[in-house]
Design goal:
This protein is mainly α and 354 residues long. The chain contains 16 helices and 3 strands.
Length: 354
């Protein structure tokens, strides 16, 4: 028996013990040749993911298609991914809030992991062959956002209510975000059918497909209803809109903060944005009512590292009580004896008109 035949026999014996036939190997090799290229697979993934992922990762997927468009997914190595991540980090557009490209590199790795995770699910390669999982993602640095002081928040609201082409809209936006601590996506997705005027609740639909009822003050509910009536929002269209009936977009927020920053330079210097209002309200709620209520107020209902959080979850009535103390207004779901300091709420006027 030749050495070559002995090797073949040994290989066949090993395959038999593994329960694998030569035909299985042939099919696997054939399937591997069918693994798509980046140019072919990026559009597939982009169509399959949610709007949030598509918005966050689309620029990085475009970069992959441009750089490795004609290469198959199983041809790229972890070292090549690291090199491209370093190139993206080095060439990131310089902005005042930039952190040396760390966020760009982190998002690039996240975008690649998202793409390969779907490729594994589609059967183009195994989890062990996923090169993106073998590349370390840069550690996210702590956020520079923090709570805005009451006096500073009052300045922001003063500028918003006295400047611009639509102060009514801008003050409504600021009050909505300060009362509810909602994200921009939650505000933009708000529909007239999401308002429970009797119980002063709004239905927030935010990232991660989370949905929750959030208490609002009677004053804010009244102005939301007036806004819907005056700007002719139909039940299936967004609540927040311009005077001509067009729904607003994220650009309205950008214009708002750019305008406020021209009057208040510290807003531009510190890169104040709508998300700072979320920090402001949740910090106040945590200090006054504790962590469990702040967690529920924020809509952070899962993923807590503490098992105890499952047993001490705050109720909607407790969130309403915190809101009542925040705004100084009674709420239908809050205990009638609720009273407390009015801090953040004092700095969030909604323009009253005769």
């Amino acid at each position: 028996m030749s050495a070559a035949q002995a090797d073949i026999d040994a290989a066949l014996l090993l395959l038999d013990r593994l329960g694998v036939s030569p035909a299985d190997l042939h099919r696997a090799a054939r399937d591997r040749r069918q693994t798509p290229t980046f140019a072919e697979y990026v559009p597939v993934v982009a169509d399959a993911v949610g709007n949030g992922s598509r918005r966050a990762y689309s620029s990085y997927w475009k970069r992959l298609a441009e750089t490795w468009g004609d290469r198959r997914l199983d041809e790229v190595t972890p070292s090549e991914i690291e090199r491209l991540a370093q190139q993206i980090k080095a060439n990131v557009v310089s902005r005042r809030n930039a952190r040396g490209g760390r966020s760009a590199a982190e998002l690039f790795i996240a975008a690649l992991r998202c793409l390969y995770k779907r490729a594994v699910a589609d059967g183009y390669l195994t989890a062990a062959d996923d090169p993106a999982q073998k590349v370390e993602k840069p550690r996210r640095l702590p956020s520079t956002r923090r709570a805005i002081a009451d006096a500073r928040l009052a300045e922001i609201n003063q500028v918003a209510s006295t400047t611009g082409d639509d102060p009514d809209l801008d003050t409504l936006l600021l009050r909505l975000h300060t009362e509810t601590a909602c994200r921009r996506g939650g505000a933009l997705a708000l529909l007239p059918t999401d308002l429970d005027s009797e119980q002063c609740l709004i239905l927030l639909k935010e990232k991660g497909e989370t949905v929750r009822w959030q208490p609002v003050s009677p004053t804010l509910m009244r102005h939301l209803l007036r806004h819907i009536g005056e700007r002719q929002a139909s039940p299936s269209t967004p609540v927040l809109r311009y005077r001509d009936g067009r729904p607003i977009s994220r650009r309205r927020y950008d214009h708002l903060w750019e305008r406020v920053g021209r009057v208040l330079p510290w807003v531009t210097t510190q890169q104040i944005s709508t998300h700072w209002l979320r920090h402001t309200t949740l910090t106040w709620v945590e200090r006054q009512f504790g962590y469990a209520v702040a967690q529920a107020y924020a809509g952070h209902m899962g993923g807590d590292v503490s098992v105890t959080a499952t047993y001490v979850r705050a109720t909607l009535h407790e969130v309403a009580a915190a809101l009542a103390a925040l705004t100084g207004e009674a709420h239908p779901l809050a205990p009638s004896t609720t009273s407390g300091p009015v801090a953040v709420g004092q700095a969030v006027p909604v323009r009253e008109r005769c």
